[in-house]
C-alpha cells in the first residue's frame, strides 16, 4: 500500500549531493493550525476495508476520534461557547463559568476548550461515575460536582443541578445545555455535514449513525438532504433506547411503559453516548430527515468491536461499534456499489473497563454472526 504514495521513477528528483538518496514518499501535511480550536473538525475519513470488501460497498467512517478531545463533542463545545459569546452571555478572561451536567465526552471537550478560550468549567456528574472520568476532568481544570443519581425529573439530577448552579453563579455563567441547545445541531450542519459531502465528492447513498443528544444526526441529515436528492438517513439505535420504535412506528412507549416510570428514562445498554427515551430539541430538528431506524443489540456491538480490531486494527468505542453494525447491515440490504458513511465517534480507550472487558473475551468473529 505504501508504494502507492511513491513518485514514479521518472518524476523523482535526485539529490545533488547523493544520487543514491532513496525516494521519499509524497507527504501532504496540513498547515499549522492556530490554538486548540484550530484542531477541531476537518477530521479524516477512512474506508473500512473488511466491511467494504464483504459487501461490495464503500463503507466510510468519519474519524471524530481524531478531534483533540477524542470525540465529536469538541465541535459541539466550540459551537456552544461561540454561541454564548455571540449572545453576550459570557466573555473570555472575565471569570465566567461554563456549566454542564454530563458524565460523557461533552464534559471533557468543555473543560478542555474552556481553558483554551479563557473560561472556567463546572461539570456535574452522578456520584457513581468512574474515577478515571472524574480524574480526567479534574486534570483538565474543571470543577467537578458529584451528585446523588436521580431521575431526570428530580431537581437533584445532575443536569438540573448544573442548570440551577449556572443561574446561582455570581461571577457570570452559562448552562451549556447540550440536549436542548441549537448550537449543537448547527455545528454539525455547518461543519460535519459539509465535510462529509466534500470528502465523498457528494456521492453518499446512505448516512447512518446513533443519537444521544441528536445533534449529530439532525445537523448532518439536514445538510445532506439539502444537497442530495436521493440520500437516505438511518438512525442506529442501541438496545433499551426508544428511538427505534419512534422512527419505525411513530410511538415511543407501549401501554405498559407508562410515562413517568423509571423505565421511561433508563436506557439499559452497555453502549455509552447514544440511546435515549425522549425526543430532545436537537433530535426534533432533524427528525423529518430520518428515513429509517435499525436496532443493534449489545451482543452485536461487542462482536463488531472485536471483529474490527481483529480484521482492520480499528479499536473503536461502543457507539462506533453500533454504527458499524448498522452500516454493515445497511450495505447488505442496499447491495453492492453503494457508498455508506458513518461516524467513528471515539476510540476504545475510554471503554476499556466496561465494553471492551466483554469484547476482549470473545473468540474469532465472523460476519455471518451479524
Ligand atoms: N458517541 C459518543 C461516544 C458520544 O459521546 C455521543 C454524544 N453523547 C454520541 C455518540 C452521539 O452524538 P449526539 O449527541 O450528537 O447524538
TrEMBL record:
Catalytic activity, EC: 2.5.1.47
Catalytic activity: O-acetyl-L-serine + hydrogen sulfide = L-cysteine + acetate
Membrane topology note: Single-pass membrane protein
Main location: mitochondrion
Matches recorded under Pfam families: PALP
Tryptophan synthase beta chain-like PALP domain mapped to chain residues: 38-346
Name of protein: cysteine synthase
Amino acid at each position: 500500500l505504501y508504494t502507492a504514495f511513491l513518485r514514479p521513477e521518472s518524476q523523482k528528483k535526485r539529490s545533488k549531493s547523493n544520487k543514491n538518496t532513496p525516494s521519499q514518499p509524497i507527504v501532504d501535511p496540513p498547515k499549522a493550525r492556530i490554538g486548540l480550536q484550530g484542531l477541531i473538525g476537518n477530521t479524516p475519513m477512512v474506508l473500512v476495508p473488511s466491511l467494504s470488501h464483504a459487501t461490495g460497498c464503500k463503507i466510510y467512517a468519519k474519524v471524530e476520534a481524531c478531534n483533540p478531545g477524542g470525540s465529536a463533542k469538541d465541535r459541539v463545545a466550540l459551537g456552544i461557547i461561540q454561541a454564548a459569546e455571540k449572545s453576550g452571555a459570557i466573555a473570555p478572561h472575565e471569570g465566567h463559568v461554563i456549566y454542564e451536567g454530563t458524565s460523557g465526552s461533552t464534559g471533557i471537550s468543555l473543560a478542555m476548550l474552556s481553558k483554551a478560550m479563557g473560561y472556567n468549567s463546572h461539570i456535574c456528574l452522578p456520584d457513581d461515575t468512574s474515577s478515571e472520568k472524574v480524574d480526567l476532568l479534574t486534570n483538565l481544570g474543571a470543577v467537578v460536582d458529584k451528585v446523588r443519581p436521580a431521575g431526570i425529573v428530580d431537581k437533584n439530577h445532575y443536569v438540573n443541578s448544573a442548570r440551577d448552579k449556572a443561574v446561582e453563579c455570581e461571577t457570570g455563567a452559562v448552562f451549556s445545555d447540550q440536549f436542548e441547545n441549537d448550537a449543537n445541531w448547527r455545528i454539525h450542519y455547518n461543519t460535519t455535514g459539509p465535510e462529509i459531502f466534500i470528502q465523498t465528492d457528494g456521492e453518499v447513498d446512505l448516512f447512518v449513525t446513533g443519537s444521544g443528544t441528536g445533534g449529530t444526526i439532525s445537523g448532518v441529515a439536514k445538510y445532506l438532504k439539502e444537497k442530495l436528492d436521493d440520500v437516505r438517513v438511518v438512525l442506529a439505535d442501541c438496545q433499551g433506547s426508544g428511538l427505534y420504535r419512534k422512527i419505525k412506528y411513530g410511538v415511543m412507549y407501549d401501554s405498559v411503559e407508562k410515562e413517568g416510570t423509571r423505565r421511561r428514562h433508563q436506557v439499559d445498554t452497555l453502549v455509552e453516548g447514544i440511546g435515549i427515551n425522549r425526543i430532545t430539541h436537537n433530535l426534533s430538528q432533524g427528525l423529518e430527515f430520518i428515513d429509517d431506524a435499525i436496532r443493534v443489540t449489545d451482543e452485536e456491538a461487542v462482536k463488531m468491536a472485536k471483529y474490527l480490531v481483529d480484521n482492520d486494527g480499528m479499536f473503536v468505542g461502543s457507539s462506533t461499534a453500533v454504527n458499524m453494525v448498522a452500516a454493515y447491515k445497511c450495505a447488505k440490504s442496499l447491495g453492492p456499489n453503494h457508498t455508506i458513511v458513518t461516524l467513528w465517534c471515539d476510540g476504545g480507550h475510554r471503554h476499556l473497563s466496561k465494553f471492551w472487558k466483554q469484547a476482549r473475551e470473545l473468540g474469532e468473529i465472523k460476519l455471518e454472526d451479524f
